[in-house]
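=== RUN LOG ===
request id: a7f3
mode: sequence -> structure
chains: 1
length: 309
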Amino acid sequence: MKIIISEFMEEAEVDRLRQSFDVTYDATLVDDSKKLQSLLADADALIVRNRTQVTSELLQHAPALKALGRLGVGLDNIDLTACEQRGVKVLPAVGANAQAVAEYVITAMMLLVRGGFMASSAIGEGAWPRAALSNGGEIAGKVMGLVGFGGIGQLTAKLAQGLGMQVIAYDPAIDQTDTVWNSTNVEPRTLEALVSESDVISLHVPLLPSTNNMFDAALIGQMKPSAVLINTARGGIVNEAALANALKAKKIYGAALDVFVTEPLGNQSPLAGIPNLLLTPHIAGLTVESNQRVSKVTADRVADCLLKQ
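=== RESULT ===
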């Protein structure tokens, strides 16, 4: 059986797959659609990250495809309907990068709320902005609001509670009578109530028609002026221009974005030069440890799927 891997995967897991399968691993395939299409002609499985667009058109070049491994959890780059129609099993690495994302959220939150870690270069050059950087905030006692309360949201809640935060969450897929609320000591809220109550808001929902542009100017305008917003989910959930305007006008205190509508950002991005805004290149779920876990889980799931055919 033949497996094609079009983006980065841990070599140890690629080698493990090679023990049982014919594996073609080329992390540049994501940028060479013609070659990828050619290789898929007789492929039984394809393994991707978030950049390979698994469209209905691509699937037409893969008539024998049985399994689609996703090195991560987001599925917005995959046409799920087309996969279902063709009998292709979609296999995300659920839970494998949760720790990395949760730790990123906590780190970004503390950097933003404390606000004293952005002057290293100036201090090294002799500046001493002690007065300006002496009015940062503390995390203990503040309210974290989680938009989406799946595995990553629940782990983020646990870490935040360990720092003395109260945690509330909004997730329309979880009934308010569900036992998860009591077991995690997290209180459910409507979206509007969460936004108005939270000192820190962290997003953990997929990009869907219902979540696209969810945090627009109106919703951002309901946040506390002292609040911060963190998005490690998907670009498009936050309206970038509205966020930039709110930060420039000091309507909210700060934000951290790891995901964007266009990646990489274009030269005309409204996010350029915005105060108290942390930007990272879609790496919240990427650590040495999480890469190993994600690769192992994906390899296991794809191998299991193919061997059961």
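=== NOTES ===
The chain has a mean pLDDT of 96.
The first helix runs from residue 11 to 18.
=== END ===
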